[in-house]
Amino acid sequence: MRLAVQLVTYYGSADLPLLLESLNHQTMKDWSLFVCENSCDRVEAERVQKMLEASGLPHQFFISEKNIGFDGGHQSLFMMHDAAYVLLLNHDARLEPAYLEAVTHRIESDPTIGSVTGLVYRWTNDQERVIDTAGLEYRCLGRIVDRFAGERASTVTDAIARDGQVFGVSGAIGLYRRSAVLRAGGLFDPTWFLYKEDADLAIRLKRAGFSAWFEPAAVAFHRRGLKEEGRGLFDRLANERRRLPFLRQCSYENQWRMYRRYFRLSLGLRDICCTIVVEAGRSVLVFLASPRVFFRAWRRILFG
Questions:
Q1: Nearest to residue 33, comparing CAs of 9, 59, 56, 51?
Q2: 135-145 pLDDT, tens per residue?
Q3: CATH number attached to the domain at 3-222
Q4: Strands 113-122, 131-133: pairing kind
Q5: pLDDT per residue over 195-212, tens digit each?
Q6: Are 236 and 227 in contact (CB under 8 A)?
Q7: Which of 36, 175, 259, 287 has CA atoms 20 to 30 A from the CA of 49?
Q8: Which stretches within 65-162 are classed as H helix?
C-alpha cells in the first residue's frame, strides 16, 4: 500500500458522506482508509460504520473505548499500517479529485520532503473563496499560524499560485512521509489530545533535516468548526468562550509544552521578544475568557 488516509471522527457522521464521496472520486487509487471513531457513542459508531461500508472504499475501522483525542486517534491509526505516506484528515473536510495524486507526486519528487499540503479553502457558502491554510508559517515560537488563513483568495492570487517550501503543514489535511516522521521521533504524543501537535511535528521534522512543501495543484476544503479567530479583541474573546473549556485548556497547555521543548536563548532576541509579547496576550485572553480554565491549566503545566 502506497498511501494510508487516516481519519479520526468525533460525532462527524453529518459531514462524513461528502468526505467519503470526495475520496471515492480521487484520481489516485493506491491507498486505503483507516478510521478511528472517538465518540464512545454506540449509535454514532454504527452510523459511521454503515457509511464506510456503503462507500465501498477499502478501509479499516477502529472504535476507541474512550475519547483518545485527535493525537491519540491518529497515533493509534499510524501503528495499524506501514504505508510509506500518511494523509491526516478531519471529518469536516473534502478533497478535489486530484488532491491525493498531486500531494503524493510532490512528496515522491524529493526524498528530503517530509510533509506536503495542498491549498485548503474554508468550506463555506460564500461565493468568494476564503483560505483556510496554505501551510504553516513560523512567526515566532509563540505564533506558528496557518498561512493566509481568513484571507480572500482574490487578495493573494499570486502567492497561492506558486508552489514552494513552507514551515510545516496543518494536521487537518496534511501528508507526511512515514520514514521522516519516525526519524523525527514519531507522529503525535497522545497526551497532548488536541491542538499544537502539527506545529510540534513541523519543528521536529525541520530539525531532522526535512522540508515541508505547498502544492497549489492539490485543492481541498475544510469547515474548521472548532475555532475561528476574529480580528479584534472582543471577537477573539467571544470565539474563545464559545469553545469547550477542556479544549481551551488543551490548547493553552500544549503551547506551554512547546515552550518547554523548544524555548532556548539560541532562538535569538527577535524570536524571544515576539514570543513573550504574543504569549502575554494569549494568557490574558485565556484568563479573561475563563479564570477557572487558566488556573486549572497552570496546575497541570506546573505539576503535571
A1: 59
A2: 999 999 999 99
A3: 3.90.550.10
A4: antiparallel
A5: 999 999 999 999 999 999
A6: no
A7: 175
A8: 69-78, 99-108, 157-161
